[in-house]
Design a protein that fits this description.
Elements (H helix, E strand, L loop, with lengths): L5 H6 L8 H20 L14 H23 L12 H17 L3 E2 L4 E2 L4 H13 L7 H22 L9 H11 L1 H31 L1
Antiparallel strand pairs: 1-2
Length: 215
């Protein structure tokens, strides 16, 4: 997405339906409703025992409130402050591709015309972050690699260890024997500690050592 120049915005009034905040807010609201519908049959649990539906339903509520706020702001903006919505095809395609990759490979499944194996978060997580990060040309590859492993470690820590949300960690042929022999909690902790250490090591190699040499 891109925006018009300030001069262009001042010269031509942007219709409310074409404003970036209006369209963006509406899309966020639509996403929130979709997440809620998909998670409506999941148990949210209680404060003492968080269920599998707590995270998606909580996320849906937060997104809905944020989307409505952005939508209303766009509707009430003056013509001088409003920005026109444009679609940048390449970044949008990259982000959509990363979302599809995550959805079809995290658990795997039969999608009619094709089927996919379960790869788990340890493989799909870094790939999704890396691919989606390439939507912006400002992102350096080295920083993106560090971010890919670091964010995956954070997702495993927060969602699986702290919130107890069930997410496949490894490909199924690796996860089943590891889980049976070590237990799911141990497997998850080894996974996020390992990726966290890997992200820290790569950060030192990519950025710390060159900085020390220059100093």
């Amino acid at each position: 997405m891109s925006t018009q120049s300030v001069e262009g915005r001042r010269a031509v009034a942007v219709p409310r339906y074409a404003r970036i905040d209006v369209i963006g807010g509406a899309l966020i609201v639509l996403l929130a409703v979709t997440i809620w519908i998909g998670a409506r049959d999941l148990d949210a649990g209680a404060l003492s025992r968080i269920g599998t539906g707590a995270l998606p339903k909580g996320l849906a509520v937060i997104l809905f409130v944020a989307g409505v706020a952005i939508l209303l702001r766009g509707l009430m903006q003056s013509n001088e402050a409003a920005e026109r919505f444009y679609i940048a095809v390449r970044p949008a395609a990259i982000v959509v591709a990363s979302i599809v990759l995550f959805g079809v490979f995290i658990r795997g499944g039969d999608f009619g015309l094709f089927s996919t194996p379960q790869l788990g978060l340890m493989i799909v997580g870094p790939l999704t972050v890396f691919i989606s990060g390439n939507a912006t040309p400002e992102m350096e590859v080295k920083r993106l690699i560090v971010l890919s492993f670091g964010l995956t470690a954070a997702m495993l820590l927060v969602f699986m260890d702290l919130l107890s949300v069930t997410i496949p960690v490894f490909p199924v042929f690796i996860q089943e024997p590891l889980t049976l022999s070590l237990g799911i909690d141990t497997v998850v902790r080894i996974a996020y500690v390992g990726y966290g250490l890997l992200a820290a090591l790569l950060h030192v190699i990519f950025f710390g050592l060159p900085e020390m040499r220059r100093g």
